[in-house]
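Work Package 3 (structural annotation) set out to generate three-dimensional models for the target panel prioritized at the project kickoff. During this period the team completed the workflow that converts sequence records into discrete structure tokens, so that structures can be stored uniformly alongside our sequence database. As a representative example, we reproduce one entry of 235 residues exactly as it appears in the project archive.
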Amino acid sequence: MDEERIDSLEELSKMLNCTFSDISLLDISLTHSSYANDNHDLKCEDNERLEFLGDAVLELCISDILIKKFPDYAEGQLSKVRAAMVNEQPLAGLAREHKIGDFMLLGRGEENSGGRDKDSILGNAFEAIIGAIYLDGGYESALRFIKTTFQSLVDEWIESPIYLDYKSLLQVACQGRFRLVPQYRTTGTSGPDHDKTFEIEASIGDRVSTTGTGKNKKEAEQDAAMKALQKLEEL
């Protein structure tokens, strides 16, 4: 790394309120695979391995935080909150808050296609940063960072679960309990063309079947998934 890159990374580490013993870990966490592929001669490592690690560390730390924050919540409720907090949307939002896109190393294709503001790239980079913090300072450092960074999301969840995606939560629950993926199919429509109501069935093998309604297929699927989650809780 040249001096300019090191200065840039040190600026970011201050914004993250983290001190790195090995600043190269932060550099790797911000290196997209497209950049590594475009610069074979540099022999740089992309952030995918750190993302893999960061994803696991994030789930553990959020579980640690939630089980202490909500002592009366059952396992199913804790799983819902965790899944809502660690999915792509809130992670990308936190990455934007910390201006992570400004520090990313991207290949020409991703750069030209607006990669610095893509939810997937930002969310993955944020997980990679968590992986880097864990490798550099251990579990306590990662937990301290996540507690501080995710506090606003925990507070917002208490007031209103704004990141709730019932389909995603149902998929997580089904894969964990049954090793199955929910299936959705349209079972009917009603009303005039300009004001249709869709009916969608959500099924989990032969265990659960629910029907949701909505003004479009997405709304109907979310409604069916919400009802399926309620049935799972009853089971």
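The chain is about 60% helix and 10% strand.
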